[in-house]
Design brief:
With 336 residues, the protein is an alpha/beta fold. The chain folds into two domains: 154 residues, Rossmann fold (3-Layer(aba) Sandwich), CATH 3.40.50.720; 121 residues, UDP-galactose 4-epimerase, domain 1 (Alpha-Beta Complex), CATH 3.90.25. It is built from ten helices and eleven strands. The chain has a seven-stranded parallel β-sheet with strand order 3-2-1-4-5-6-10, with helices on both faces. Strands 7-9 form a two-stranded parallel ribbon. The longest helix is centred in the middle third of the chain and has 16 residues.
Length: 336
Amino acid sequence: MRILILGGTTFLGRHLVDAAAARGHEVTILTRGRRDPQPFPEVERLRGDRLTDDLAALDNRTWDSAIDTSGIAPRAVRNTLKHLQGAVGHYIYLSSIAAYEDFGLPGITENDPLRPPLLDDQASIETGDDYGALKAGCEQLLGDALGEQLAIIRPSLIVGPHDPTDRFTYWVRRIAQGGDVLAPAPPEQWVQIVDTRDLAAWLIKSCETGRSGVYNVGNPEKSLTLDKVLDECARVTRSDALIDWVHEDFLLEAGVMPWTELPLWIPAKEAAMRGFTSMDTRRAASAGLKCRPLAATIRDLWAWDRSRETSLKAGLTPDRESQLLEQWRMNQARWL
């Protein structure tokens, strides 16, 4: 097959290239050319800017399938459709669970309502407009144009090697370092993730079958909790880490930022977000998505993280963590 990947030099894109090449497909990637393309010497590389409609490189070409990992602003999708409509037989769009209107209840299904779509051509993620509404707008544009040719994927947190956000990587590195580790209580809070390589492999197979429709993607609902994640991190990295489960009220009063300073943490008080970590993913599982064991993801992510020398983009700094733990131990009676 001839597969076009819109955005293919970081994280999911690079794993899509690997998965497609492993199955013998002919791969073309379209990027703005701002990143080093050396990981992909075997693929055709096109340059273009979807926001400015600098997409002449797509003209007079055809592909069997396209995978859109980079469409956020509606005008970028509109511009792309002008050049690709009728030029691809199948289109996969990577949307987001942020497109859903209500995370108040767990078990969100693909049929639940979306946020009101943001379709303004001047809207872009760079100007701080709402991400979920932008994704919903892109879904609507693509659905209207492509119909049964379209598959929409709404993944949970994507994790694995080459993750530029470091959200899951923070916990693997921090647990591996050992010592006293601050973690947000309660330990049994739900976590939902998908390994980027599992997602990539399933998307390439979806190209092969022309799979259409909408799919929530992640580990099975209510199968993974934060304490299980941290315990597995400790087991895989052979760490002596000791977890201090700190009450969320203390953390919120101290100004700790959920999801950024403490990745995977969504406070129980955030009732509107309760479904964020427990989507119903049975439709994707029935369509062949297989999630590797958590230990395999942790092992490979740890190996990749040790191969680089960089500070993390997410998580508590060591000084911040130490200060919080000291304050917690001095005042925890107030919160228990």
